[in-house]
Write a structure and sequence with these properties.
Order of helices and strands: HEEHHEHH
Shape: globular
Strand order of the largest sheet: 1-2-3
Helix content: 55-70%
Strand content: 5-15%
Number of helices: 5
Distance between the termini: 43 Å
Mean pLDDT: 90
Radius of gyration: 19 Å
Low-confidence stretches: none
Number of domains: 1
């Protein structure tokens, strides 16, 4: 499941970015929902929120480390469906943005929530965020087959 999710995110991310680059000049926008969201084509040569501009190889290195970590976690721990989905989203997003950095020397961003003036992002960014969220949710779950403390256990 992990690699299927990663492949799906990667292919969709690259397809959408190609469509944006081919049909929407940099700096131009197309309204999707007036006053709420638009596609606004920018090329981001930094990380999230444009931090560390022009540090392409730093972000490529981070993506390689994430990729190796995901593969090691998958092989060593054989995680459940929630973790596999989270890791797949993380992997697909990391490799999608890494591809942009290596090929384009910047990341194609295009989703802009004008209603809240949020940072412009792309599918890979969203996949990374949701993947990390799923991994965090999983970290708060009790492992199967373990007993959780109850009031009676604490009082005794």
């Amino acid at each position: 499941m992990l690699y299927l999710v990663a492949a799906l995110i990667y292919v969709l991310d690259q397809l959408i970015k190609w469509l944006i680059r081919a049909n929407l000049p940099i700096g131009h926008s197309v309204t999707v929902i007036p006053g709420v969201v638009e596609f606004l084509h920018i090329q981001n040569n930094g990380g999230a929120f444009s931090i560390f501009p022009n540090q392409i190889w730093l972000f490529v290195l981070v993506a390689v480390v994430v990729t190796v970590a995901v593969i090691v976690i998958d092989r060593k721990y054989r995680p459940g469906l929630l973790v596999q989905t989270g890791l797949g989203l993380l992997l697909g997003g990391a490799v999608g943005n890494m591809t942009d950095r290596v090929v384009q020397h910047s990341v194609t961003d295009y989703v802009y929530f004008s209603i809240i003036h949020f940072a412009i992002f792309n599918l890979a960014d969203a996949a990374i965020d949701v993947g990390v969220l799923l991994l965090l949710i999983n970290s708060f779950r009790s492992p199967k087959g373990t007993k959780t403390d109850t009031k009676e256990d604490i009082d005794s």
